[in-house]
Specification:
By secondary structure, this protein is α/β, with parallel strands linked by helices. It has one domain (2-170): Dihydrofolate Reductase, subunit A, CATH 3.40.430.10. It has four helices and 14 strands. It has helices at 24-34, 43-48, 80-87, 101-107; strands spanning 2-7, 12-15, 18-19, 38-42, 59-63, 75-77, 95-99, 113-119, 127-128, 138-143, 147-149, 152-161, 163-165, 168-170. The strands form three sheets. Strands 1, 4, 5, 6, 7, 8, 10, 11 and 12 form a nine-stranded mixed β-sheet that branches. β4 (38-42), α2 (43-48) and β5 (59-63) form a beta-alpha-beta unit. Residues 165-170 have low confidence and may be disordered.
């Protein structure tokens, strides 16, 4: 399983139920990476999508404890157990966790790769992604050239989890 996220310098991802910034190249990378794949996200993230509808061209799974939630063109998992049962039908390399912060916190430990768009700016925020730079289980394995969008600079980063063995961590 993989995750995909855009973060600022402090690993912030949102404020007031909205993304921190909209960068067209980030959206394009997100579309290219997730199209035709399975995406997992929470109800609040769904509400940020256009017309609060699931993403087209992808298998959508919404992780929500709300048992009354019904969403056309999306599967609902009400628990982690139920989510993992649904995921048995898919190749885990085709599954992407896309937010929000509570879903990331629950599922990043199960991911082996994270695509990060790191924005070189500090935003006011109330939602955060786990700081992979401070987690010894993760290491950065790729980084694009620095990009710019108006006055913002950003880069696409790739993090991979070290494999654990009886003797410790192996890259």
């Amino acid at each position: 399983m993989k995750a995909i996220v855009a973060v600022d310098r402090n690993w912030a991802i949102g404020n007031g139920g909205r993304l921190l910034v909209s960068i067209p190249a980030d959206h394009k990378m997100f579309r290219n990476e997730t199209m035709g794949k399975v995406v997992i996200y929470g109800r609040k993230t769904l509400e940020t999508f256009p017309m609060a509808r699931p993403l087209e061209g992808r298998e959508n799974i919404i992780l929500s404890g709300n048992r009354d939630l019904k969403v056309k063109d999306a599967a609902i998992a009400h628990s982690m157990d139920e989510l993992f049962e649904k995921l048995e039908a898919y190749d885990t390399d085709e599954v992407y966790v896309i937010g929000g912060d509570s879903v990331y916190r629950q599922l990043v430990p199960y991911c082996n790769m994270v695509h990060v768009t790191r924005i070189d700016y500090e935003y006011k925020a109330d939602a955060f992604f786990p700081n992979l730079d401070k987690d010894p289980a993760w290491h950065r394995t790729g980084e694009s050239e620095e990009q710019t969008y108006f006055d913002l600079t950003y880069a696409f980063l790739l993090y991979e989890k070290y494999e654990t063995t009886a003797g410790g961590l192996n890259p």
